[in-house]
Write a structure and sequence with these properties.
- Belongs to the major facilitator superfamily.
- This is MFS transporter.
- InterPro entries: AmpG_permease/AT-1, MFS, MFS_dom, MFS_trans_sf.
- Keywords: Membrane, Transmembrane, Transmembrane helix, Transport.
- The chain is mainly alpha-helical.
- The protein has helices spanning 19-24, 29-42, 50-58, 63-68, 74-78, 83-88, 94-98, 100-120, 128-156, 159-193, 198-212, 214-222, 227-236, 241-257, 262-271, 274-290, 294-322, 325-338, 341-349, 353-381, 388-404, 410-417, 419-428, 431-442, 445-448.
- Helix 2 (29-42) runs antiparallel to helix 12 (214-222), helix 9 packs across helix 21 and helix 22 (410-417) crosses helix 23 (419-428).
Length: 454
């Protein structure tokens, strides 16, 4: 990563920064570039997910088929498998004209636009297979864009802007998701109100979503190639494509595993967000069980909850700039765990909209703080520009293990304990990650990352 401009290490507290300095960093050109790229990354997710499922249900597709469409999200969890190609291969014409990262970024965005347009031309009622194929193409091109954006963000931002860049990225990502869910549904309704058929309205709604990817494309054109990427390109320009891919794949894994306490660090990556994943799996059933309607839940989560997430993201950026990386991770880990107690309180209070809003706000706010700081840590682990994309994709895949697999037993725990005690247990499952954090800090893990001032 770029040389830091501060003298404090990752293991000691950094000098405190003022609110003015903490806010000013969000106006830095590099951070603004990352913000718009975050929007471009968040936009496609729902187009092959929740928004598509609404379209399919309105078209009369049966629930069993709709359920199988969860599998089209597989590329997001397996993207680390082709991340070495993104790290090592050149895109004809694009790499020469725009550089290593920007070339891949523009190429993936063009493919993403084409994939969304192809999905727009399908008919869920007549050809679910082609809908699945189109959705899979959208997910694959979208996850490829994510690989490049993550690498671009890590390599282009200096250490002093990493957390701010991640906060901006998270906020814009959520806005992109909101545009492709609620925004897309409003657009489809608007087209349908003009008198065209429902299928045509959905087609044009997806066409509009495809055009919004151009926001990321314009951003990529305005951006400049990261200096780290230029140096990495110069260092490997004489190697063959096969050699570069091999070095990216093997080097990304071997370099990380050769570090001191690598296994413990990987375990920490898996467990840090486990408290969120364990409770998040059961949040919706819990709210319905209390007697809230789907509209109550949707309105609070999409409205008040989104606002809390955005504010929490920027608060996380402030915390990470004000304190050392280890201290920031401790703060984020503790607050995101304790927020689960608001749901235990809600279980006692019962059906109260203001209590639900408070609980959702607390959970979203603290979760966003933890997310921003955690991803700043993941970024600090990816220090070699030869395979930034591969390492980051691998780490995010490991971070998803808690959400995808470890939290699968949450329903059994909730059924056995009842809701108030379940959310207390959600607090307790955070303890292993906090113990690992203290152990890694004492072992000098954060000092080994270099003089990081996040």
């Amino acid at each position: 990563m770029t040389a830091p401009d501060a003298t404090s290490s990752a293991g000691t507290d950094a000098p405190a920064t003022s609110w003015r300095d903490s806010l000013a960093v969000y106006l830095q050109p590099r951070v603004l570039i990352v913000l718009f790229l975050g929007f471009s990354s968040g936009l496609p997710l729902a187009l092959s997910g929740s928004t598509l499922l609404v379209w399919m249900r309105e078209a009369g597709v049966d629930l069993k088929t709709i359920g199988l469409f969860a599998l089209v999200g597989t590329p997001y969890t397996l993207k680390f498998l082709w991340a070495p190609l993104v790290d090592a291969l050149h895109v004809p014409l694009f790499t020469r004209a725009f550089g290593r990262r920007r070339g891949w970024l523009l190429f993936s965005q063009i493919l993403l636009i084409v994939a969304i347009l192809l999905l727009a031309m399908t008919d869920p009622a007549r050809s679910p297979f082609y809908v699945a194929l189109g959705a899979l193409l959208v997910a694959t091109t979208s996850s490829t864009q994510d690989i490049v954006v993550d690498a671009f963000r890590v390599e282009s931002l200096p250490e002093s802007e990493q957390a701010a860049g991640m906060a901006a990225y998270v906020a814009a990502y959520r806005i992109g998701m909101l545009v492709s869910t609620a925004g897309a549904l409003f657009i489809v309704s608007g087209f349908e109100s003009t008198g065209i058929t429902r299928s045509a309205a959905w087609m044009w709604g997806y066409v509009v979503m495809a055009s919004m990817v151009l926001i990321g494309t314009i951003t990529a054109l305005v951006a400049t190639e990261p200096e780290q990427s230029k140096r990495a390109e110069a260092a490997t320009h004489e190697e063959t494509a096969f050699t570069r891919v091999l070095h990216a794949a093997i080097g990304a894994f071997s370099e990380f595993l050769s570090r001191k306490d690598a296994i413990a660090a990987l375990a920490f990556v898996v467990l840090f967000k486990f408290t969120d994943a364990f409770s998040g799996t059961m949040t919706a059933p819990f709210v319905i069980d209390l007697g809230f309607t789907r509209n109550d839940y949707a309105a609070i989560v999409k409205g008040v909850g989104l606002a809390a997430t955005l504010i929490g993201g920027f608060a996380g950026g402030f915390v990470a700039r004000r304190y050392s990386l280890a201290t920031s991770l401790c703060i984020g880990g503790v607050v995101q765990a304790l927020a689960n107690l608001t749901f235990s309180w809600l279980a006692v209070v019962g059906t109260s909209q203001w209590a639900l809003a408070l609980a959702i706000c607390a959970e979203n706010f603290t979760s966003a703080i933890g997310t921003v700081i955690f991803v700043a840590y993941l970024s600090a682990l990816c220090q070699n520009p030869l395979h930034t994309a591969t390492q980051y994709a691998l780490l995010t895949a490991l971070a998803a293990v808690g959400r995808t697999y470890l939290s699968s037993g949450a329903g059994f725990v909730a059924a056995a304990t009842g809701w108030p005690l379940f959310f207390v247990i959600c607090v307790l499952v955070a303890i292993p990650s906090l113990v690992l954090l203290v152990w890694l800090q004492r072992r000098g893990h954060f000092d080994a990352l270099g003089p990081v001032r996040v």
